[in-house]
Design goal:
By secondary structure, this protein is an all-alpha fold. It has one domain. The N and C termini lie far apart (41 Å).
Length: 65
C-alpha cells in the first residue's frame, strides 16, 4: 500500500514514453500531419474507455452550458 504513489509515477512515465515513441514512429512513417490530427482523439478514446472499463460517470452539464 505504501508504493501507490511510486507506482502511479512509474506508470505515468512508462505511458508517456510509449506515447512519445508511437508519435515518433507515426511521424516518421506518415508525417507530422497525422500526429497533430489524431492527438485530440486520444482524450476522447481515454474518456470512452474510462467510462466503460472503470465505470466512471461523465458530468457533461458543466461543459455544455
Amino acid at each position: 500500500m505504501k508504493y501507490k504513489k511510486f507506482l502511479a509515477l512509474i506508470s505515468g512515465i512508462i505511458c508517456s514514453g510509449c506515447a512519445y515513441y508511437i508519435s515518433g514512429v507515426v511521424m516518421q512513417e506518415r508525417g507530422p500531419v497525422f500526429v497533430t490530427a489524431f492527438n485530440p482523439l486520444g482524450m476522447v478514446i481515454i474518456t470512452i474507455l474510462g467510462s466503460f472499463i472503470l465505470a466512471e460517470k461523465l458530468n457533461m452539464g458543466r461543459y455544455i452550458s
